[in-house]
Amino acid sequence: MKTIQLTINEALQNAGFRFVHDQESEVFYFTMQEGNVEYTMMLGYDEEQSLIRCFSRIPVNVPEHKVIDILTAINIFNSKELFGTMFLNEERNTLFVRTYANVDDGAINEAVIWGLIQPCMQMMKNYYVPIMKIIYSEMIISN
Fold this sequence. Notes:
Layout: H1 4-14, E1 19-22, E2 27-34, E3 37-46, E4 51-61, H2 67-80, E5 85-89, E6 94-102, H3 110-142
Antiparallel strand pairs: 1-2, 2-3, 3-4, 4-6, 5-6
């Protein structure tokens, strides 16, 4: 049976991505482009627990006075999603999207990897503009 690490490595290579693998942290880093926005993607894995996690940071910092508005929006966004969640790192006021899968039954292949990446990207694509509107709404109104 292939390891999670090897499966992720092969999936990214076969798709032609340039990536960095941090073996100590068990994370693969790569970028994906959606329109004019470049997202840093992270695929973390845990061989012992048979887990794979896809994370991506939405490239925006949330101003302190907008945190409550963003948290309210995140609750609404998450309630609409079947697979994946958005969350706010409150220490840095940064937004992330996360998907994950447990593959302890040995069901690990490239389709599983893309099944984590695609919903993550779709959430960012769906909610990037609404998030930007919330963050910059005062600027739009005042101009």
